[in-house]
Design brief:
This protein is α/β, with parallel strands linked by helices. The protein has two domains: 72 residues, 2-Layer Sandwich (60s Ribosomal Protein L30, Chain: A); 170 residues, Alpha/beta knot (3-Layer(aba) Sandwich), CATH 3.40.1280.10. 34% of the residues lie in helices and 17% in strands. The strands form two sheets. It has a six-stranded parallel β-sheet with strand order 7-6-5-9-8-10, with helices on both faces. α6 links the parallel β6 and β7. The chain is globular.
Length: 273
């Protein structure tokens, strides 16, 4: 999520996607070819991303992906050609570098340990290094679980693992097909869901801002923030005050600001108890 405010001068237009560095997975992170992908789907390996040529139809892959709750991302054949020059047959999957867990199990474990949930939801954070940096901060602040969407999230690959400085080995990661359902489930489980967005009128540091108790914080896309449907569902939202001339924060920096304010408030609440 980038916190923005209305600038006094015109901003340059965003660069197009074509100007961005092209993502290329490492060979040991990738499986390609119809039969190889089918066998991978049948195995115990967890798949991070599954890309399929938008012109290809393969019921075996589609049914197995549905059973394993793996979202198929339909892409042009040219994108698959950028992944590998070998014969991919219209399908490429990336092997997960972490073991995804069920959110319901994480919540149950947290409550059984006598702790309060402290979760982080990432809505369409696509930059791998930003994700790794966020994971590092999340682990350092005591976040118990990072929740990402099945589609439109950064691949948890070797770059993410490296940028996290190993934090992803010590924190639970949940991949949910629908974050709106996730928010609803968290609220039904007694968790307050707070969105950090520049659209909020509530300052992060106002006295009325309460980040104690069972809590899930949502941070949004680097480009357009948290999706409107999620903003309509949350219990409350806050914004980070921006006092200089620059109109936004990098999403990993913004996440650190919000998480450590939550840590500060929660520490005071524990001392006062």
């Amino acid at each position: 999520m980038e916190n923005r405010r209305n600038p006094r001068v015109n901003r340059p237009k965003h660069k197009t996607n074509n100007s961005r560095p092209q993502f290329r997975p490492e060979p040991d992170e990738m499986v390609f070819g119809i039969q190889s992908v089918i066998e991978t789907l049948k195995s115990d390996q967890q798949i991070d991303k599954l890309y399929m040529d938008k012109e290809l139809s393969n019921p075996d892959i589609q049914n197995l992906a549905f059973q394993k709750r793996v979202t198929i991302q339909r892409v042009p054949a040219e994108r698959l050609d950028r992944f590998t020059r070998k014969n991919h047959q219209g399908v490429v999957c990336l092997i997960a570098q972490v073991q995804y867990v069920k959110l319901s199990n994480v919540i149950a474990d947290v409550y059984e340990r006598g702790e309060q949930p402290f979760f982080l939801l990432l809505d369409r954070i696509t930059d791998v290094r930003n994700f790794g940096a966020i994971a590092r901060t999340a682990e350092c602040t005591g976040i118990q679980c990072i929740v990402i969407p099945g589609r439109g999230a950064a691949a948890i690959n070797s770059d993410a693992m490296k940028t996290s400085s190993g934090a992803l080995n010590h924190i639970s990661v949940c991949r949910e097909p629908d974050l709106t359902e996730t928010v609803k489930y968290l609220q039904e489980s007694g968790v307050t869901v707070v969105a950090c967005t520049e659209k909020s009128s509530r300052d992060l540091y106002e006295r009325s801002t309460d980040l104690t108790g069972p809590l899930a914080i949502i941070m949004g896309s680097e480009e357009d923030g948290i999706s409107p449907e999620l903003l309509r569902m949350v219990d409350t939202h806050v914004k980070i005050p921006l006092l200089g001339s620059v109109g936004s924060l990098n999403v990993s920096v913004a996440t650190g600001v919000v998480l450590y304010e939550a840590v500060r408030q929660r520490s005071i609440a524990i001392e006062a108890a």
